[in-house]
Amino acid sequence: MTQKPYILISNDDGVAAKGINYLIETLHPVADLLVVAPDSARSGYGCAITTNVPLTIQPVRSERGLKVYSCTGTPADCVKLALFQLVGNRQPDLVVSGINHGDNSSINAHYSGTMGAAFEGVLHGIPSVAFSICDHNPDADFRPMHDYIIDLVFKSITMGMPRNTCLNINFPKADNFKGVRVCRMGSTQWVNEIARARRPLTKQPVFWLTGERVDLEPEADDTDAWALSHGYVAITPTTVDNTAYELIDVLKKLM
Amino acid sequence: MTQKPYILISNDDGVAAKGINYLIETLHPVADLLVVAPDSARSGYGCAITTNVPLTIQPVRSERGLKVYSCTGTPADCVKLALFQLVGNRQPDLVVSGINHGDNSSINAHYSGTMGAAFEGVLHGIPSVAFSICDHNPDADFRPMHDYIIDLVFKSITMGMPRNTCLNINFPKADNFKGVRVCRMGSTQWVNEIARARRPLTKQPVFWLTGERVDLEPEADDTDAWALSHGYVAITPTTVDNTAYELIDVLKKLM
């Protein structure tokens, strides 16, 4: 009998979130799991790492083929600690991040702690996948994703991924999906991003981040934002290499 | 007489760092400046934004053509607050982030709060530039950068930048630079990233992020890491679009 795959799981909604626990219940029957996730929500933390204070980890749950830890750090910190302190002698076959409560397509990926964990996996040479659903509800229904998750996880392990590249997979909020589309990251922009308020005691002004996302290319049918708004699962191959290659020659002439 | 350009400045080392203050003294004679920077160091914060607590801003310094604020948020938060609460009716001509105390080339850009601020500028349609020097010393000598900064700032304003694209500019630690090279982001990897310690009082284990960066392609002479190690100023055009375009057709066949 062949060994089950070994999967490292993290997220940015925290170890108690329904999304990561649905992912654990989905994958536990078919894989050995190591889960290291933030002790509370770290939404919007992107690829942030913690360098100015030390981190701690606490065991949360341990059973056959499943170990769960909570960590005081960011999603990227969790993956680093897992790979260098907790995996033991067995390197994970895959890093899976999520399931995020909320859309991580287009510009949201830029700020996403879910993606921060997936990037950390590929930066250490491990194929990585991020799962998100377009539903911020803490009690979101993840069941329609079940078979897709199993299928996409095993495909990702089998096919591997080029260095520095991972998959950003977003699901629409729906009972059924129209299918899967491979996409590029859409160009969107956040607007009306600041809400003013006052501290009740001192009346000092404070500023909350908020806003709405505007699609800058709603007609383009090759983006992740388009796929989601039309009922498809959006798979966006994503790289840590941010070089704007098309500008290199232009700049060489200007500089 | 034409109006001086209007430049928004931020960083990730905090408003008191020598690097941002050297940038202010360099640009104040030639530009109107709005400075909004974190109240203390936010190194490694990447593109992180703060959504779970409200932010505050405090005026630090105000004179003709220069206003400085400190902010409780991340570098990206600082730029958002500046653009939506502090710029007034005049849109900045450029966002400048830095000068960072430390190398932000290759994979360091991925974790860099300095880059987080620059990305935030271009996400709002403003040309943006990040400056860093390969010297972590809080008292680093920025004077050799002076004329390059003036030149690169005015070139950036004049030429503009395509949407979602900014410049990541790194300087070697040197008294003189061999010149400027336009580069791609090099492929490097951090290793030995965790240092174990114990809390003095409880002896509980804690984990510090640390490590060394390894160049995965030291022979390639078109990377930012190569330019810096050979004495050149490295200019890397950088985009917020992380799509791995070369994988789209491959994945379409596999899915």
What is the gist of this entry?
The structure is a homodimer of 255-residue chains. Chain A has 255 residues and is an alpha/beta fold.
Percentage of β-strand residues of chain A: 25-35%
- The CATH architecture designation of chain A is 3-Layer(aba) Sandwich
Supply the number of helical segments of chain A.
Answer: 7
Report the major sheet of chain A: 9 strands, mixed
Low-confidence stretches of chain A: none
Distance, first to last CA of chain A: 61 Å
Mean pLDDT of chain A: 96
Helix content of chain A: 25-40%
Which structural class best describes the helix and strand composition of chain A? alpha/beta
Shape of chain A: globular
Q: State the CATH topology of chain A.
A: Stationary-phase Survival Protein Sure Homolog, Chain: A
CATH superfamily of chain A: Survival protein SurE-like phosphatase/nucleotidase
Radius of gyration of chain A from the CA trace? 19 Å
Sequence of strands across the biggest β-sheet of chain A = 3-4-2-1-5-6-7-13-8
The helix/strand order of chain A is EHEEEHEHHEHEEEEEEHEH
Largest interface: A-B, 71 and 72 residues
CATH class of chain A: Alpha Beta
Regarding quaternary structure, what we see is: homodimer
Compute the number of strand runs of chain A.
13
